[in-house]
């Protein structure tokens, strides 16, 4: 852990919040506080700071009672044992172990679908699907969704997929993606969704790690004007994995006729099966596989600061209770809401807040296949009006990219249905917050800026929209049951107004339980840096009113358009280029993406740097990881700044990348300080 940024400007200068808590009114302008309207608060699930504080207090003092009560609202075939939670979070006391509702027998698919149908929601729309093109759409009621899930579940069982087996899903945002997740959950299979923007190499790496019985994909998809042949990527990935000894027996392929034809799809008889040829033949009801609360639900690979992607493992019971509860409170969910989360199911946001959290609440969810600026920058607001969306959840990068276009793309649409806005993935800068709030939400809709991670399963620090006044750019306060702490370099907790490393004390139901096949790495990465705590990898400050301000990663993970990318992964892709000797990658500020990827490369002796080489280096990264990880800048480096022991000093590279040359700091500890001047001289080559 090297360096971290400090308090964002604006934080800390706000005072008198205690006065607000006590009910005195203070002018919001003076204090940078944005209050929910009286009308909103009075109808909110949590409508005042006091109510929040009481609930939070109970969740901390009596987690078993607090979470046990909520869990009882779901269906359990058998209630959990004596303890709601049992945990060891201190590496000094033995292996890290977290269990919630152990002994409870349930099924998350049953709770998402059957339970809602039985409660009378069978005819309620579960999903509106909006295709890439304007006039292509579909919808499914809860009953219809249940039937489709059952058909697929029956097929999976029939071909031998059993409880505990892994299934890889490589699908774009078609309704078949959540259907596939739910079908796996129904039969106790462990899904691992791979974002359909990952390359064949990345997909293969994940297949090799989790050895799925079956892979689900589609032949092609259109994103904006482009057609992407996903099946060809799967074919290539399966070639790579079989060379590594991992072969997958079945590739169930959905025929997405809006993007391509069957004739144009390469086919391997015996392995490849058309979804439409088999799945609809199966019965529309399917027995549920009842599982233990601690049985695995899914694996989702995410980037770390070193080495290959980690398989984050979530289990059933705690994740179910946690995603449902966070969804309900952070968005102040009402049964009449229509909810749209723009995230792809390939990321954790799409797991917890496209599929599980909303469906557990019986919500109506919009699933969008396309991109937000196709055919033009007004598409999102057009969709909002079309479906009368009331909760709109997105990423700051989307806000910033739309902000650059004319306001009329927003104001041409009514947006009257909107009630709550949400943000996730990276810190939202106050100017983007204000544009989102003032223009998109007509200064009427609170913004839930939700801080959380793949590892946390659900929201950790988030506004409850009717409870607190907001501060643009702050994720505000911890969710129920969450106790964030800020620690210094030595791992000492710091109280009050401060900044440092964000950790969490105690566990919460949605916490991940291990890294698949590597519990040691789980402990080393998350529980050893600051013994006794879960370490998030993020920097954070707390202002004098107790508001939390996330300041970005403090490790070697960068966040590009909300996509988490390990610098080590990009470096290893670059270094595998035959003409690249060494690479060092850092994040730099980027106007739209939040962070951009800046790569320093050292070439093999005698190889000249050229435009062609630059392009082929970038192609290397696109092929090995995916287009979203392509470096924004490649900086030719005859030498890299290293300490005498050979460690690359990234601090210096970050300063050079961001052209903060007056802030290079002490370079005397470098083995060869002259490389710094050389790098500066080559900055614009
Ligand atoms: C960042 C995405 C500030 C953070 C849900 C975290 C955020 C990483 C926010 C996790 C937010 C996510 N404010 N930073 N509201 N939300 N982050 O695993 O750096 O893809 O560690 O999960 O995104 O990314 P992941």
What does this structure look like?
A hairpin with a 6-residue loop joins strand 4 and strand 5 (137-141). The protein has 685 residues and is α/β, with parallel strands linked by helices. 31% of the residues lie in helices and 22% in strands. The protein is built from 23 helices and 31 strands. The chain is globular. Helix 4 crosses helix 5 (63-71), helix 8 (142-158) packs across helix 9 (176-187) and helix 10 crosses helix 11. The longest helix has 17 residues, at 142-158. The protein has a seven-stranded mixed β-sheet, sandwiched between helices. The structure holds 5'-O-[(S)-ethoxy(hydroxy)phosphoryl]adenosine (WTA). 5'-O-[(S)-ethoxy(hydroxy)phosphoryl]adenosine binds at residues 302, 347-349, 423-427, 449-454, 475, 536-538, 550, 552-553, 559, 564. 5'-O-[(S)-ethoxy(hydroxy)phosphoryl]adenosine binds next to helix 14, strand 25 and strand 26.
**How many helical elements?**
23
Percent in strands? 15-25%
Instruction: Assign the structural class, choosing from mainly alpha, mainly beta, alpha/beta, alpha+beta, or little secondary structure.
Output: alpha/beta
Strand order of the largest sheet: 5-4-17-16-18-19-20
Mean pLDDT: 93
Biggest sheet character = 7 strands, mixed
How many β strands by DSSP? 31
